[in-house]
Amino acid sequence: MAAAKPDAGVPDSGPDIDKMSFEDALAELERIVRGLETGQQKLEDAIAAYERGSRLKQQCEARLAEAESRVQSIVARADGALALKDDQ
Q1: pLDDT (tens digit per residue) in 24-42
Q2: SS3 assignment, position 82
């Protein structure tokens, strides 16, 4: 008997989340959410997808926090030039 093909939106483990770009992680998370919203997945597949989605969400949040910190470290000086906060 042939093995069943995984349902759409269910990652088969996928790439290493820690090595994914923010954009790739967000795109995969969106695919997982769409797959879960259909309700067509088997229970075990849905649980695996949810778990991976949770890890992707954490990775995206960490990347956003890092980006926000970097942006906040740049400030406009009185003369309009940009500088790092420490360079004032």
Answers
A1: 999 999 999 999 999 999 9
A2: strand
In the block, tokens 């009185």 appear at: 78
Structure tokens at 65: 């926090």
Are 57 and 35 within 8 A, CB to CB? no
Strands 74-76 and 82-84: antiparallel
How far is C-alpha 38 from the chain's CA centre? 20
The contacts of residue 80 (CB under 8 Å, 6+ apart) are: none
Report which DSSP code applies to 15. Answer: S
User: pTM higher than 0.85, yes or no?
Assistant: no
